[in-house]
Amino acid sequence: MKSVNMIWKWLILAGLATLSIYVVLTPPGSGEKQAATTEQKKRFPGIRLGIDLAGGTSFTVKIDEPRLRAQITDDNPSFTPVQINEEMHKVMANADDRVLEVLRKRVDGMGVNEPVIYKGKDHSIVIQLPGADAKQRENAERSIESAAFLEFRLVHKDNANLVSRLLSGKPAPEGFVKDDSGVGYIPTAEYATLYRDADYRRRLSRFGCESMTSYEMMFEKRGTGNVYIPNFVAKKRELTGAELQSAAVDQNSMTGELQVSLRLNKKGALIFKQVTEKYCTDGSQNPGPGRQLAIILDGVLYSAPMLKVPILDGQASISGGGGFTASEANMLRNTLNAGALPTPVQIIEKRVIDPTLGRDAINSGLMAAAGGAIAVFLFMLVYYFYCGLIANIALALDLLLLPAGMIIASGFLSFFDRSVDSRFLALPVFTMPGIAGIVLTIGMAVDANVLIFERIREEFRLGKSARAAVDAGYDRAFLAIFDSNITTLLTAVILFIFGTGPIKGFAITLSAGIIISMFTVLVVTRMIFNLTVPEGRVKPYKMLSVVKENIAFDFLGKARPALMITGVLIVASILLFSVRAAKSPSSVLSVDLTGGVTMEFTYANQVPSSDITTALSAANIQAEVQYQGFEGGERILQVRTGITADDEAAATLTTITSTLAESFPDAAFAYKASDTIGSSVGAEMRKAAFYSVVLALIGMILYITLRFELGFALGGIAALAATVFVTIGVYTLLGRQISLTTVAALLTIVGYEINDTIVVFDRIREDLIKDPRNDFKTIVNQALNRTLSRTFLTSFTTLLPVLALVGFGSGAIFDFALTMCIGIIFGTFGTLFIATPLMVNWYRGRRPGFEAAKKSIG
To answer: Is 260 in contact with 123 (CB distance < 8 Å)?
Structure first.
């Protein structure tokens, strides 16, 4: 039986490895892949990079006020000009924020999980899509400009005869010719141009029904050909999309064609039931074959099924005539689930975006990450010898299996949010927050290995054989590894459900890393030990030691001055940040959080964006730079700063212009234009981010309370809060700005520190159960000393790649690494001198009641 279990474990490992290699080397299944414009994309077509790493496409969208005015006029023919203006003002109030959030949800649903979206002036919004190719740009345009206004309207009860007379008695309308079969019309080449004109659309809607003022003519595209069938549809709406609960893609059970199924809310289901009962075959007002019910989206008739029986469950479906393609069905579903736009919009500009980080910055970041990883591998090998070799195999497998983990995590998380790219075997978009999740994954994987090895060392000291020491080491370390990883996984899930943008990307990668690292550490490394440890070996495995075996440092005795220093640092951090933010928000917050000014320069020769950022920083200008270009047009360097005051903006423009000219004369930068922009984090996104973090903290408190006790949870959360405040204070004191990348780093630090703290708490709980005699403080000090080696080693191995990024990275990579470096150092301090002392103070000399858990330890 044991051998069968081993075979299954090896098969699972082989399966995960095969899946990872397959998804990395194979483009997403829908065929909508990023263009392979670099060697990296040619070698790894399944990896989709975010706009900060790979560039993409930018749309500038603007609220279409003339079209909005026309809609209000059409819907309210009795309104006076004053009333129309009042209605315009009412609709436009806060319209920018509402439009921004609807568009964000639509783009998220396209698989672009981390778009860059921010408000401009005059009701414009900039949307940047990472790595978008021609097909994706086309789908994005259709999704962005769609109002998603859903209507259910009745078709004329004599529709068949009216259509027959229309087709036989009148010539085709403008922009169409008659179909040879005589069932409809075929659009001409001019139709697409004509349809953009609102007057043409009005004339077309009156074609054939000039005498029927309560009806209009609408075309339904039917079959696989390009045939449009006329229908006479009532202007009165029986139901609208306001009652739509959700939309999903499925197959028609009769034809097998793709369709979009609609589920109405309780109110909508009741209205739908009443309408279908009333107008179905032999209905109360329709003693005949039944009426057709037209399903219309944004003025386009998608289908008009005959009502044969009452529909009681509030479900309907939209078919595409001859069926939708997978891409069309998914886009329509995502658009409907995102909700209707409060106002019509139009795309006024399209641009092509170069990577924000710059190719040189990306290469230096990758080299630094590789150098840091090599340093971790060498350290583990030198410090733990044979055990370190096994740990390195596990780390290598973590990186190899991570793509499979991302597929599993995305599939699991898609149950909580339909906006996740749920295409079969498609990797999520990979961005800077994703890198943050990988760094935390490596740190937690090393931590678990170190925890096991230190436990094995303790078992050897008790005189056990090698096989017995390994078995006991894994058994003793399991609870600590399980608790710390489950807590972090719970946090990742909460962040994903209630977060948005970068927070979702971070949560996906972190979840994937936890799933894979737990498998490699708890399953794979133990299988390797079982295969390689001789039955009769007694000699302990060779391991170095940085902490003396019988160290007895009085951590609780030093807690009071440590807490006082921490309190001073927290107060100083809050005051420093508040004063600087009040004086000049741009000095502590980046443009993606505050908004500001964007300045554009044309250029002749491109220079690395990281060099430009460095030159501007030397001139005391904190800015984000990005190369852009119009399709087939001029090349642009865009510089975004957090300056908002007009006088500051003018002085900043002068400084930037002179700096570019003096530092890069060969580039020939020339000022083109400037514009005011809004924050890329809208009100809804700020609210979602706040709630996600608060709920994550509540989730941590509940889980730690259930697994330990409330005092332990409060001590851990207090240490987390202190670490975050101090990290922000030190980071801004160094002249850096808080950005979305910094937020990702702070989330990483939170996950890292709670993992570290729970390991210490787990040892305290174990020692309390084993030792009923000593007082609580003595046991706590003893546990802190016993885990001290693991605490130092984990912090050191996590700092190795982070310090490499600080030394060689630039731009957003440097910001992330610097934040991590500060957070890891103070987080280690917080675990030892904040979390445990505060927890001990909660109990005021009492012992926590862990005796009931003694059986779970064994």
So the answer is: no
Q: How far is CA 375 from the centre of its chain?
A: 30
Give the residue ranges of DSSP H helices in 414-522.
432-461, 466-498, 502-519
Instruction: Kindly give the interhelix angle for 432-461 and 502-519, rounded to the nearest 10 degrees.
Output: 30
Q: Which of 291-300, 421-430, 450-459 has the lowest mean pLDDT?
A: 421-430
- What's the CA gap between 12 and 76, in Å, rounded? 64
Burial 242-278 (b: 16+ CB within 10 A, else e): ebbeebebeeeeeeeebbbbbebeeebbebbbebbbb
Measuring CA to CA, how many Å separate 224 from each of 30, 254, 284?
20, 17, 36
Kindly state the DSSP code that residue 229 receives in the 8-state scheme. Answer: E
Q: What is the CB neighbour count within 10 angstroms for residue 422?
A: 17
Q: From the centroid of its chain, how far is CA 140?
A: 18
Distance set, CA 566 to CA 543, 748, 777, 824 (Å): 35, 21, 21, 15
Neighbours of 662 (CB within 10 A): 10
Residue 790 neighbours by CB distance under 10 Å: 23
- Using DSSP, state whether 278 is helix, strand or coil: helix
Nearest to 519 by CA among 427, 397, 387, 380: 397
Nearest to 405 by CA among 428, 372, 436, 423: 428
Q: What is the DSSP letter of 646?
A: H
Give the tens place of pLDDT for each residue, 643-697: 665 667 778 888 889 999 989 988 888 888 776 665 555 555 566 667 767 777 7
Check the CA dihedral 29-35-38-39 and report its sign.
positive
582 Cα distance to chain centroid: 30
The candidate with the shortest Cα–Cα distance to 493, out of 479, 512, 480, is 512
CA angle (300, 301, 307) in 5-degree steps = 155
Q: 649 or 517, which is more confident?
A: 517
How many beta carbons lie within 10 A of that of residue 182, not counting itself?
9
Q: What angle do helix axes 788-808 and 432-461 make, rounded to 10 degrees?
A: 150
Q: Are 116 and 680 in contact (CB under 8 A)?
A: yes
Distances in Å between the alpha carbon of 454 and those of 391, 518, 757? 13, 17, 17
pLDDT at 73 over 50: yes
| pLDDT value of residue 856 | 42
Query: 755, 385, 419, 758: which is closest to 543 by C-alpha?
Result: 385
CB 507 within 8 A of CB 493: yes
